[in-house]
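TL;DR need structure tokens for one chain.
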Amino acid sequence: MADVSIALAKWLARLRLRSTLTSAECDAVLGLPGSLEVIPAGRDFVKLGEVVDRSCLVLSGIAGRFSQGRDGIRLTTALHIPGDMADLHSVVLPKAASALMALGETQIYRVPHEAIREVGDMHPALERAFWRDCTVDGAILSQWSMTNSRLQGDGRIAHLLAEMSVRVGVSSADDQMHYPFPLTQQQIGEATNMTPVHVNRMLRGLRDKGLVEIRARRVHIMDWRGLCAVGEFDPIYLHLRGAE
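>> reply
TL;DR here they are.
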């Protein structure tokens, strides 16, 4: 079972990348109550149209946010990693317009909206920090929309893998880096609007160019600058201090 304190500390670190917080405000985040759940792979833990009273902090694994057409086809619109409060916006918009699914076994910590509102009322700077967090989620969605509509398949995947490397905190001080990435080729396709066959072909191309490959459920980046060039990746939309 993942350590809740570590996950809350990761979320706090994310908030502090964009907001200056006092020790009292930090303690308020670290003390948020909630309940632990382990979600099996492929299961929705927030359903379309569901009215929720808790927000979900990802402790381990990866959660996917998706929209779904009338034909049942799903398109992933966000990936949430450990330390992400995947649906913080539900504090003010509790009816889910999009859903959350575990992409592989995922542990979450459900924090009552009431508790989040209380710490926001007590600490206005935290309320603004929560607002910034939601705004960045919106910026990522906007960037994905542009990337998936403009770039070829190899560029879409390159952008996704570069973004995830920055979000998980992998250093690009040298050109070689790696990080866990348990998504299947079908799940990558649902995030980049491609078929699994096309994803496979694009991944082979990126590997053959010496840029990146996925093996043993890990991303291995061999040429960071080359990967960013193919994916037209600039982390400015992530609003991370010191992001390269």
